[in-house]
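Q: Predict the bound structure with pyridoxal-5'-phosphate.
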Amino acid sequence: MISFYPGPSKVYDEMSAYMQDAHKQGVLSINHRSDEFMSLCSETISLLKQKLFIPANYTVLFTTSATECWEIIAQSLIQEKSSHIYNGAFGEKWFQYTHRLNAKTESYGFQSDELLNPRKLIFSDSDLICVTQNETSNGTQVSNAIIGGIRKKNSQALVAVDATSSMGGIELQFKNADVWFASVQKCFGLPAGLAIMVCSPSAIQRMNLINERAHYNSLVLMKEMIEKYQTMCTPNVLSIYLLNRVLKKVKTIDAVHEVLTKRTRNWRKFFSKQNTLQLLTKNDRVLSDTVLCMQGNASIIQQIKTEARKAGFVLGEGYGEFKSTTLRIANFPALKDKEIKSLKDFLKKIL
Ligand SMILES: *Cc1c(COP(=O)(O)O)cnc(C)c1O
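A: Predicted complex:
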């Protein structure tokens, strides 16, 4: 089975060997306060900075999931209130999680075909603006330039970006925002259970100003620990090790970005030659490079998903309101050209 589900998705083929190495090298039993762990942690953070082009003065931390990052941000970085800009189910969930912790939080919805205009996105009474860079539920994305524009127009606010289904796949301009996060079961080609959070110097300043210390995952406490290359609780050491191995193997993000955007263009060309499935979003300028969301008649969608499983492919279910009328296809780096070709050959027969 090859999983094209947009997370959890196909893991790198080397995963089995990496896991065996972890066992053989004793990584599964190392103490999280030991020198071995601290050097693994330190090296992995350096590799993240080096391969993803994260600015040297940004702080990288480990958490368990993107969902945990939503709560850390709400607890440790909001002074009065946040504003959430979203056009789909994941952005909405982020808003709802934050709203439960902060009743003043506001939402700003937009259409999935709509290209955001930063000049119209001024939230002068908010101190944190939340953007879902890649909306996994409908296959749309917000560009680096728009994120930078939002930050410029709202200089009083921090900008936090959910890049869960794009970090490690496309080149993100980390300097254009203050908080970035992603879990590893999407573009990093790893099993679930770890997430990466990246904070700018302004985010660290805000964190210190608020100085929230009421939770085990208070950002101030996490920052104190990561300065020693440690974590608050016993972390998923295996996952950090696997991330380390994957990062050593992958090319720098500019090269990965080029491969993925070329593949997306080819996917769009492929689907433009048939009439059974259409892209859910018609505006080329907002289409995601890492998740394709195809719409069609519910019974055909169901048939394609079922036949695909029989042929050895897992396709992504539709999400939320699009559950039965769409299917999603991951365009993540761990998928190989020949696997994409075999999925296309299968689809050619059925469409
Ligand atoms: C998958 C996903 C999440 C949730 O990730 P978890 O690791 O399950 O918390 C959040 N946001 C986006 C955009 C996602 O694609």
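A: The pocket of pyridoxal-5'-phosphate is lined by residues 7, 65-67, 90, 132, 136, 162, 164-165, 183, 195 (CB under 6 Å).
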